[in-house]
Amino acid sequence: MERDFRKGSSKVLILNMLAERPMYGYQIAKELKRRSEGYFSFKEGTLYPALHRMEKDGLLRSEWQVVEKGPSRKYYHITEEGRRALAHSAREWTTFSERLMSILGEQGAEPVT
Amino acid sequence: MTNGATWTVNEELERYLAGVAGQLSVDPTSEREILGEIQAHLQDAIAEFREEGLGAQESVTKAFDNFGEPREVGRMLGRLHGDSANQAVLAAFLPVALALTFKWMLLPLLSTLAHWQDSPTPFVFACLAILALLVPGLSLRNWRYGYGVWAFFSLVTIAQL
User: Fold this and answer.
1) What is the pTM of this model?
2) Which of A37, A42, A71, A41 is nearest to B47 (CA)?
3) Which ipTM did the prediction report?
4) Mind listing the pLDDT tens digit for each residue in B42-101?
5) A2-106 maps to which CATH number?
6) Residues B134 and B106 in one domain
7) Host H or E run for residue A62
8) Which residues of B touch A (CB under 8 A)?
9) Are B30 and B55 within one domain?
């Protein structure tokens, strides 16, 4: 269940970070882990199918940047469509979270047995 | 890092990337790009673990472990970029379709219009058709789904020559 939530939220989290600035894959994985204090840590290899999917869907675009020292890096940029998708997903998550909390709040956050 | 350690790291990286590549059925350009991106990620991770004081082997192992099993990563990316396989089938079919169209439609039409008595260029046509058949094989690698279709249409075309 918890894993499903995390998996389902990966898109909005990635879009949210890329809305701030373009990043490359390793940076995204590190930043996600740091900001969530390890909660959103996952097998880093799963990040790339997600990024490529979003790029295919037009939410991201990418460009290679040659680095003087070290490997070239593929930077991902959010597109206008990506920003719209982020706004939409953020609203959905906020509504979901508020509704859930209102129910849990009524129950005193104790599981019903 | 010693030269020996660098060599080992590179060798292990190549082995890992080969594991990913084995599951991809994409054109060479896409494959280079996908593997280049993964390689950069792993190199960054290894360098960071080295900076934290881990040994070369330990850094590599940890970076690979964090990234995931190479075949699984390759499978996920292969599924996503699977359209390439369909494109390969199309690429395999198109030259043959064009060759057959050329033989059965254009040549007879030209023969009629120009009052040619015989098919003027069977040898040239055969060479062109065979060259056309080689195009997808030379330009696309790992298009395993295309092989069957390519072989079938190759036989059909050659049989029609």
Assistant:
1) 0.67
2) A71
3) 0.82
4) 999 999 999 999 999 999 999 999 999 999 999 999 888 876 556 666 666 666 676 667
5) 1.10.10.10
6) yes
7) strand A60-65
8) 33-34, 36-41, 43-45, 47, 66-70, 72-73, 76-77, 79-81
9) yes
